[in-house]
Design brief:
Elements lengths: L2 E3 L2 H22 L1 H11 L2 H20 L2 E3 L18
Antiparallel strand pairs: 1-2
Length: about 90
């Protein structure tokens, strides 16, 4: 089983994503904001920019997942030795 490592910058990044999702939920419930964002969505340069931002965000979120795989036991190690992670 891999050991996951959480860095404070990764946690901050995921908190920003949670904040953005909360804002999307708020926009869906507000008619004025929904109309404003619908106008933005009809603008071609805005949608091209959004696609690029989403692509970079997905790469950043995938890059923020860190784990350490379990290494094979060292030669001559005891059978009850604690696991060693990379």
């Amino acid at each position: 089983m891999p050991k996951f490592v959480f860095l404070w910058t990764d946690i901050a990044l995921w908190l920003m994503v949670a904040g953005a999702l909360a804002y999307v939920w708020h926009v869906r419930r507000s008619p004025n904001l929904r109309a404003t964002w619908a106008r933005v969505a009809r603008d071609t340069p805005a949608m091209c920019s959004a696609v690029i931002l989403v692509a970079f965000s997905v790469v950043g979120l995938l890059d923020s997942v860190h784990y350490r795989p379990l290494l094979p036991p060292a030669p001559g190690a005891a059978a009850d030795a604690p696991p060693v992670y990379a």
